[in-house]
Amino acid sequence: MSLTAPVWDEIPTQCRQIPLREPPSEGCETHALSYHAYKLRHGESLFRGWNSIWAFRLVTWGTSNFKFKTAHKKPFQDPIYSQFSLAPWIVHLIAMSKSSLLPVSIAFASALVLLIGRFLRKRPSFPLPPGPKGFPIVGNLRDVQPGEHTGDKRWERFARWSRDYNSPDAVSVEVLGERIIILNSKKAVIDILEKRSGKYADRPEMRMANDLSGWKWNFAHMQHSDLWRLHRKTFHQHFQPRMMPEYYAILKAATQIMIRKFATSPDDFLDHVREQAGSIVLKIVYGYNLQTANDPYIQLANNAIEALIETTVPGTFLVDFLPVLKYVPSWFPGAGFKRRAKVWKKYSEELRDLPWEWLMKSMTQGAVEPSFVSKNLEKLSSSVEGEDRKAMEEVIRNCAGISYVAGADTTVSAILSFILHMIHHPEIQSRAQSEVESLGRLPELSDKGKLPFTEAVIAETLRCNPVTPLALPHAAMEDDVYEGMWIPKRSTIVANIWAILHDEKLYSDPMTFNPDRFLKKDGSEMFPLHPETFAFGFGRRRCPGRYLALNSIWIAVTYILATFTITGPEEEEIVTYHDGLVSHPYPFKCRFIPRSGLGLIPA
Ligand code: HEM
């Protein structure tokens, strides 16, 4: 078919009625299609005129096909209708082959085909978990947007749906044909993610995080596979409970530095908490000692973490539901996500590569302290060579990079929440201070278990403000049925940790900060479940860094209590929390008034 401009006047009158609503009538196809192709090639917008009409026709054709198939149990074979529905669309694409809109056009066409496919999927007779009704095509896109846009946090909204739809265990929504199932009860997470963990150990594809923002190497995002298992095993060997005593000295040293900095520059306390968490992991993983006040490696984690927080909770980025959007050029209006992803990708690569390169260089100079990386490299005996060695080195490098970023922000959030609760509950602070003081010296990690009230304060902090309120999403590896509700294969499964830790059947008066709930008052009373049971996720993907995290938090909390009284600023501040993977409080002010110091702060 020629794509030169047909002269309008030369097109027979009956063919000028370009088939905006009907297929071209007999004899007019060439005129109609070539004229339209010509117009497109000369820059007519994809979303205007013909294209959108043919896009619409494509959808209606898909729907008719589906209806026909359902009614007659055989494929829809109206040659004229299907031929004329698809042919012009293909011509459009060819016509645009020299146009810069081609990728957009392909993305749009594939999106439509994908959507139709998703809507035509067969459904078994079980109902899906209930949930809010969505809009056509986009479904519940708006319902899963972060709270910053809608005024409430996602975990609170999701918990409310369980009440609204009278389904305490699970609710669900659909976004652009993708199913998200939210588990809101202890029963559901245990039954599904723990007892059936083999079926739910996968992750959703996380296109924004992995494909665009460069986090593919992060094993927390990997699909359930041998490669993931190898990463997890390598990681676990160095972060299991029996390894913890080896790190006690590192934890203590980093926390002492933080305490001294609280005394000398209290206004920068947020930075000091970040430095404590970052320096612990850098030392354990790479044997690296912080060099300067604003160490560049701490900055690496700060840069990289934003991407992880923003991209891993389902609902934040459309591309997670419509993968073809990956191909939209970054200059295209509305493609801001591509521009952000480009910056995040650079940060993710720097985080993984720069400390590693520093260590490799130091090793050649023979000046390294033992660390996760150096010990693992030593273990790779000289018999592992060539490609195998390269692959194993990559696993070690990935595990090191992820422990650094996973460990940095999470413990920071818990320590900051503790500080906030102490500001608001001075009587609880003073009870915990007396308990710590009763040791008569600075606490040691071997004192764990000897400070029941202080440990109850930590537990209540993790309960009231779970660090990762929606955990990391899992994915269903096969179709399943739970309590008469259908869970389709590849659904994203979100465990609402916040909802469980605020369930009044488990924790009475759940919105009140009350550490006493974790203290046994008499022999008959049962403890409520420790928040640790839920706060670190579930099943085969449960957080493997939790022992280190709990030790870091314990030492930071007990040292702070031993050394300072924390108070708020004179004018009361309302502090809000971020709605992302890690929910940390937004910056706030506080004052550290030195107490006995137990030798930590120089007189
Ligand atoms: C208070 C601190 C922390 C909290 C609340 C926390 C929470 C979580 C949660 C909820 C998950 C997802 C579990 C699931 O999918 O069900 C997770 C995964 C993970 N965490 Fe943590 N974490 C913390 C600290 C740490 C630390 C210090 C490290 C490393 C040193 C770490 C390393 C990891 C890794 C590697 C994964 C991925 C596991 C996998 O997918 O197999 N975390 N964490």
Q: In words, what does this structure look like?
A:
With 603 residues, this protein is mainly α. The chain folds into two domains: 113 residues; 390 residues, Cytochrome P450 (Cytochrome p450, Orthogonal Bundle), CATH 1.10.630. A hairpin with a 2-residue loop joins strand 4 and strand 5. The longest helix has 39 residues. The termini are far apart. The N terminus is likely disordered. It binds protoporphyrin IX containing FE (HEM). Protoporphyrin IX containing FE binds next to helix 10, helix 16 and helix 21.
Query: Helicity range of the residues?
Result: 40-55%
Ligands: protoporphyrin IX containing FE
Number of domains as seen in the coordinates: 2
Structural class: mainly alpha
Calculate Rg over CA atoms. Answer: 29 Å
Look at the structure and give the CATH class of the largest domain. Answer: Mainly Alpha
Family: Belongs to the cytochrome P450 family.
Binding site for heme: 543
Protein name: Cytochrome P450
GO molecular function: heme binding; iron ion binding; monooxygenase activity; oxidoreductase activity, acting on paired donors, with incorporation or reduction of molecular oxygen
